[in-house]
Specification:
The structure holds 2 protein chains of 2 kinds.
Chain A (H helix, E strand, L loop, with lengths): L1 E5 L2 E4 L2 E4 L1 H13 L3 E6 L4 H7 L7 E5 L9 H11 L3 E7 L2 H13 L4 E5 L1 E4 L2 E6 L4 E7 L4 E5 L15 E4 L9 E7 L13 E5 L6 H5 L1 H7 L3 E4 L1 H5 L20 E5 L5 H4 L7 E6 L12 E4 L2 H16 L1
Parallel strand pairs in A: 1-4, 1-6, 4-5, 5-12, 6-11, 7-11, 14-15, 14-16, 16-17, 17-18
Antiparallel strand pairs in A: 2-3, 8-9, 9-10
Chain B lengths: L1 E5 L2 E3 L21 E3 L1 H15 L5 E8 L4 H10 L3 E6 L6 H15 L3 E5 L10 H9 L2 E12 L2 E8 L2 E8 L2 E5 L11 H7 L4 E4 L1 H4 L7 E7 L8 E3 L2 H11 L4
Classes of the chains: A alpha/beta, B alpha/beta.
Chain lengths: ~325, ~250
């Protein structure tokens, strides 16, 4: 039987784009093996559906073109997926806010348990996932009539957006359940790469002391063409907006370079970034736990070191 | 209106857990246990709604071992009116817990159920959504703001890249994000008073709940360790290493 992948996407005005996490989930789906069908739910997604048909490894794109599914609210989306479920052995979604919202609802409606945040596919019914803030890795086996999985985006390399030729099929659904209504959204406008897809992340913590101190990270990130992240302490202190938080309760990232500035390295933060290829840390406290996992540690006063780092990068990167 | 708040007894968030040598799980013997931090936020939100006059009764519930009574007493000390423990020594899956909570929702008929968005031990982030599915109610997950308005509740949710507001029909299920509120501490007089508040104990069997699961844990291992690298002396050395050794800039 085939695998159903629920697509998460962003809509801005008249154009829509798949979330990079959807492409990672597609990589996981291909590892399970079997025909993959991609579900696109929402109105005005014609262009996106055409592009989705060219995704490498997708056999069929199911388009539920209906305003009922705009903003992918869990109640209506789950009912739609459950109506398709009898045809599938696996139902997948990326562990984005949308996936985490709808997958458990779908699983419960199908009377099966769900597996969250899968980081490895061992075979068709065996998977690995982190527990205890990434301090342990559990191997789990599923034996329900259908397997419901959320995949951690940073654990799978996104697949190519060209090379496939899927069939586009328009489908209907059970319609609006009338339980919830979308009221509005706020997106702070950042002209920087998204945290999950950035190659370089410069992240700041409580050590930056003020909002102005934290702001010094932006020109630094720009020199490295990277994104800015924050620890929970920096967010709680009001230095940085909540969207930037990296950690167990925020975003999970795995960039090439993670530069931690004034971050102590609490368990909850490390859970969100320990899979970075290279970790560099600047901290005043020589005993900060961040130095236990950093490939390169520099101990010192960051208010002296940051301007110096900026100059050094300018000359090193020309 | 009546609110049901679900709390879970978990290993304290400051504890660095160790995997058992036989890979059967995590060693929890003699480890400090506490109320799950997201559940504390759920209790606090319920208490604030009561202080605003929106809520008349708060029922704290938990599914877990006898010792979870401690966490229910904490919820009572923080302002819950009474508590119910669904007692079991098995480690239940999210679906089994959601089924137990559904049985309590059927009995208590709350207008709002508040849960944490995830427990910091299993990290599942599933129970609230599953309870919403089983009850057929709307769900407001990852809430950073909750406002009851007539027969609806407006929930501001933390989504990727921003905030989203949804209006949910009541009764509804809400799960809390860290930024919803800052939980208070229980005062000593309130801890003493909590000892006299009612705490009922039931079993999943008595509720007619099946605790079987379709997902079995085969093995629990320690993650691949990341070891400390080197300390550099200067900014110049750091940049040089990142550029020429690690080749990441």
């Amino acid at each position: 039987m085939a695998i159903l992948l629920i697509a998460d996407y962003q809509s801005t005005g008249c154009s829509a784009a798949l979330a990079p996490a959807t492409l990672s989930a597609l990589a996981a789906a291909r590892q399970i093996g079997g025909e993959v069908h991609l579900l696109l739910a929402g109105s005005d997604l014609g262009d996106l559906a055409e592009r989705a048909c060219r995704l490498d490894g997708v056999a069929r794109v199911l388009l539920a073109d209906d305003t009922t599914y705009d903003h992918l609210l869990a109640e209506n989306l789950s009912a739609l997926v459950v109506s398709l479920a009898p045809h599938y052995s696996h139902i997948l979604a990326p562990a984005t806010a949308v996936g985490r919202d709808c997958l458990p609802r779908i699983a419960a409606l199908l009377d099966v348990d769900a597996v969250s945040d899968v980081i490895a596919v061992l075979d068709r019914d065996t998977f690995q996932r982190p527990i205890y803030a990434g301090n342990a890795i559990a191997t789990v086996r599923c034996d329900g009539p259908v397997i419901v999985l959320g995949t951690r985006p940073t654990a799978f390399d996104p697949i190519a957006t060209e090379g496939g030729s899927a069939v586009l099929e328009r489908i209907g659904g059970p319609g609006d359940l009338g339980l919830s209504r979308w009221q509005g959204e706020e997106h702070p406008d950042f002209e920087r790469p998204a945290l999950e897809s950035a190659k370089v992340i410069v992240a700041g913590g409580r050590g930056l002391q003020t909002q102005e101190g934290f702001a010094a990270l932006y020109p630094l990130a720009d020199r490295l063409q990277g994104a800015v992240g924050a620890s929970l302490a920096a967010v709680d202190a009001g230095f940085a907006p909540a969207e930037l938080q990296i950690g167990q309760s925020g975003r999970i990232v795995a960039p090439e370079l993670y530069l931690a500035v004034g971050i102590s390295g609490a368990v909850q933060h490390v859970a969100g970034m320990k899979d970075a290829k290279v970790i560099a840390a600047i901290n005043l406290d020589p005993d900060a736990p961040i130095f236990e996992i950093a490939d390169y540690g520099l101990q010192g006063d960051l208010f002296e070191l940051l301007p110096e780092l900026m100059l050094e990068l300018d000359s090193a990167l020309g | 209106m009546k609110v049901l708040v679900a709390v879970k007894r978990v290993v304290d968030y400051n504890v660095k857990v160790r995997v058992k040598a036989d890979n059967s799980g995590v060693d929890l013997a003699n480890v400090k246990m506490s109320m799950n931090p997201f559940c504390e936020i759920a209790v606090e939100e319920a208490v604030r709604l009561k202080e605003k006059g929106v809520v008349t009764e708060i029922v704290a519930v938990s599914v877990g071992p006898t010792a979870a009574q401690e966490q229910l007493r904490t919820a009572l000390a923080l302002g819950a009116d009474r508590a119910i423990l669904v007692e079991t020594n098995e480690e239940l899956s999210s679906l089994a817990i959601a089924k137990s909570l559904k049985a309590l929702v059927d009995k208590e008929q709350p207008q709002l159920v508040i849960l944490g968005k995830q427990a910091i031990d299993s990290d599942n982030n599933q129970t609230g959504q599953m309870l919403a599915a089983l009850t057929g109610y709307a769900q407001g997950t990852f809430a950073s703001k909750v406002e009851v308005a007539g027969d609806k509740v407006n929930v501001t949710r933390e989504i990727d890249g921003g905030l989203q507001t949804v209006a949910l029909n009541l009764p509804a299920i809400v799960t809390t994000d860290l930024r919803l509120n800052e939980p208070r501490y229980a005062s000593l007089p309130n801890i003493m008073k909590a000892k006299k508040k009612p705490l009922d104990v039931v079993t999943p069997d008595a509720l007619g709940v099946s605790t079987s699961s379709t997902v079995k844990t085969v093995k629990v291992e320690a993650p691949a360790a990341r070891s400390a690298g080197i300390k550099v002396k200067s900014v110049a050395e750091l940049v040089e290493k990142l550029k020429n050794e690690a080749k990441v800039i």
